[in-house]
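Issue 218. Parser rejects a valid record. Input:
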Amino acid sequence: MKDIALEIRGIVDENSNRLAHMEPDEFSSEETPDNWSKKEILGHLIDSAANNHHRFVRACHNVAADFPTYSQNDWVRIQKYNESDWGVLVELWSAYNRHLSHVVECIPQDAMSSSCNIGGDNPVTLEFVVKDYLRHLRHHLGDILAKQA
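Output the parser choked on:
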């Protein structure tokens, strides 16, 4: 897992400054009413970090049998990310992912096969959850940066 931890850290190091220097008109507007703005996407990534943080830790001591689903649209709507300060969101995203890279680095190898049941779906391994977190992080960060003017 050290390679994934390093990759998460590298993504943060490479993109924090880039995100912090985006112009306000780039990150607040929504392309359509059904799409999230860049602020909302970054907020969603913070929410994803929060949800996965407890999955990573709990799975290490085999108490990951039943995680609730993550109602992402509700989380974004309730937290009103478009009303948040962009700089604060970038700092929180950066700090949370730096911490998660540390958490991932600390996961014992024998915990990687621990079962995680998320929302009643078929259980997956902690290794799958960690790798999927990285995939998800890359995907949505790409959404933010691809739309950059």
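Fixed in the parser; the record now loads. The domain at 2-27+35-146 is CATH 1.20.120.450 (Four Helix Bundle (Hemerythrin (Met), subunit A)).
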